[in-house]
Every structure is written in C-alpha cells, then in structure tokens.
Input
Amino acid sequence: MRGREVRMDLEGVEAEKLLDGELLASMCSEAARLAGATVVNKTWANLGINDGSPPGCTVAVLLNESHITLHTYSDMGLVAVNVFTCGTKADCERALAFIAEFLGGRVSFKDSCVRFHSEVETPCST
Output
C-alpha cells in the first residue's frame, strides 16, 4: 500500500466550533500528531463573510505524509473531513476518531480507500 484516504461527514456539530479556523487547524494538527504524522504547514479560510456564501471554514493541514482537510457549513452543523496519508507510518483512523470526538455531532458518512493500489488490494470501501 502506498497511500490511504479516509473521509467522514459529521452532522449536528455546534456552529461556534465550525466558524473558528484557528481552533479547527489546531485540532487537525493534533489529530495528525496523534496519528503519527508530521505537520509541515497549516492554513484556514473563514467563509461566508459578506460574500453571500454559507458561513463556515475551510482548513488544510499539510503533512509530510500528505494532508488533512475539512470544510464546514456552520449554519447547518456540517463538517466534511478528508485524511490522506502515504506509507504505513500514520494512522488515518486515529486522526478521524480524534476529530469526531473533538467536534461531537453524529457521523453520517465514512469511507476508506487505498490509493495507488495494486491489483491485490481493494481500492475503496464504505
């Protein structure tokens, strides 16, 4: 296996948390650390401020192993999370578990894919 990607959607998350880009970037950095990954950079953008789009935030934490990203819709309590790591060092599931626990809410979707898979590996599962 050369890479693994996991995705998760959360519903019913407190709106205040979903508007705080700095908090969310720090949370993703801690998720990366707990997963055994190395953070190389992090950034965020607060959305929906005088531009007509729904209020929320987009966060990207760049890892030596790849990335953790999330996008929020604070007015609806929704969060989309993506964790992609290369190699076998980092544990994507550990990162997702930390993020889900930190944010609360309910997991409404979760799946996992092996990236750059060989013929003997199953590429995706839900």
Remarks:
- The domain at 3-125 is CATH 3.60.90.10 (S-adenosylmethionine decarboxylase).
